[in-house]
């Protein structure tokens, strides 16, 4: 049985993740921890924790790859860098058999903000690990709640 949660609880989880990212972004080492696509990643992952969009490849790996691609390509002429970056993240989605539309925006952010430091991918990694940790906890709690309880007769 899928553990799809309601909009209220999904919204609450997203608010908590975004606030944690905001607090983390106060530290210079992860100053980009709060980035707009994080809210989308958190919403998609918490809304349906059993979906492919909530898997580690979609929540953590593709966003971090998107940030790395953006940081390394930002030195290219803008149109070329964006085209190569978007193509690279789409190719990564195919190769990894994962879907993470926000990863496209993460590539673009490096160009829009002219980010060429590895603090950006590190920040994305920290933030997405928080999301994935929360989703994993939600899955675990949901599985425990759905597991049949043992009666006294079953334990004998």
Structure description:
There is one protein chain. The chain is 70% helix and 0% strand. The longest helix has 28 residues, at 119-146. The radius of gyration is 18 Å and the shape is globular. The protein starts with 6 loop residues before the first helix and ends with a helix. It has one domain. The chain has 156 residues and is an all-alpha fold. Helix 1 runs antiparallel to helix 2 (37-47), helix 3 (56-73) runs antiparallel to helix 4 and helix 3 runs parallel beside helix 5.
In brief:
With 156 residues, the chain is mainly alpha-helical.
How would you describe this structure in keywords?
mainly alpha, 7 helices, single chain, 156 residues
The rough form would be described as globular
Oligomer: single chain
Question: How many separate structural domains?
Answer: 1
Instruction: Describe the largest sheet.
Output: none
Helix-strand pattern: HHHHHHH
Q: What is the averaged pLDDT score?
A: 85
- What fraction, in percent, of the residue positions are helical? 55-70%
- Uncertain residue ranges: none
> How many helical stretches?
7
Q: Which structural class matches the secondary elements?
A: mainly alpha
Rg (C-alpha, Å): 18 Å
Strand proportion? under 5%
Q: End-to-end distance, in Å?
A: 28 Å
Q: Would you report the number of β strands? A: 0
């Amino acid at each position: 049985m899928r553990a799809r949660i309601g909009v209220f609880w999904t919204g609450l989880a997203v608010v908590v993740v975004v606030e944690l990212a905001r607090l983390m972004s106060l530290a210079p080492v992860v100053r980009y921890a709060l980035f707009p696509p994080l809210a989308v990643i958190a919403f998609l992952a918490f809304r349906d924790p059993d979906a492919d969009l909530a898997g580690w490849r979609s929540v953590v790996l593709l966003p971090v790859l998107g940030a790395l691609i953006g940081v390394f390509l930002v030195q290219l002429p803008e149109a070329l860098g964006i085209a190569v970056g978007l193509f690279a993240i789409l190719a990564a989605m195919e190769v990894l058999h994962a879907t993470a539309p926000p990863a496209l925006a993460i590539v673009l952010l490096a160009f829009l903000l002219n980010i060429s430091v590895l603090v950006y991918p590190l920040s994305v990694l920290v933030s997405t690990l928080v999301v994935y940790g929360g989703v994993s906890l939600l899955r675990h709690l949901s599985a425990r709640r759905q597991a049949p309880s043992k009666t006294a007769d079953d334990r004998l």
